[in-house]
């Protein structure tokens, strides 16, 4: 049962992460277009400039769970890298239970009114010619937290399997 939860969570993180990874290419192309249009033709577009910011936010916020799944997130590992797999698993379990999940839950909860207020007025850019989708951008906050919670639970279960040294947990790794 735990393997199904772990595999399901990791499948979600992988699909979303690989999808939004393509946004980095789009950001690069748009940035090149912005530079050529501005300096080569004297043209500019606030909407296109803001779209690069939106894409960056989507890559960062929707790709966080994928990065966490692959253990590619920033880690201060002065001691951690020398730990045995079992000790690392304990650190990951305790870190998930006492830091990751509470932080994500609190941030998701606190963002609800913020996002709802933005949706009520269908908040738009303050810049003339900017994108009219600030409310969608703000919606990424609770989505990111939800995805990190799902991946965090999967990570805790996976590491619990390492600690308990069960056959099914090794298959999930």
From TrEMBL:
Can you tell which superkingdom this protein's organism belongs to? Bacteria
Q: Name all Tripartite ATP-independent periplasmic transporters DctQ component domain ranges.
A: 27-159
Annotated TM spans:
20-39, 51-68, 89-112, 132-150
Keyword Membrane set for record: yes
- Which keywords appear in this protein's UniProt record, sorted alphabetically? Cell inner membrane, Cell membrane, Membrane, Transmembrane, Transmembrane helix, Transport
Q: How does it assemble?
A: The complex comprises the extracytoplasmic solute receptor protein and the two transmembrane proteins.
Q: Which protein, by its recorded name, is this?
A: TRAP transporter small permease protein
Q: Which organism is it from?
A: Rhodanobacter aciditrophus
**Taxonomic lineage of this organism?**
Bacteria, Pseudomonadati, Pseudomonadota, Gammaproteobacteria, Lysobacterales
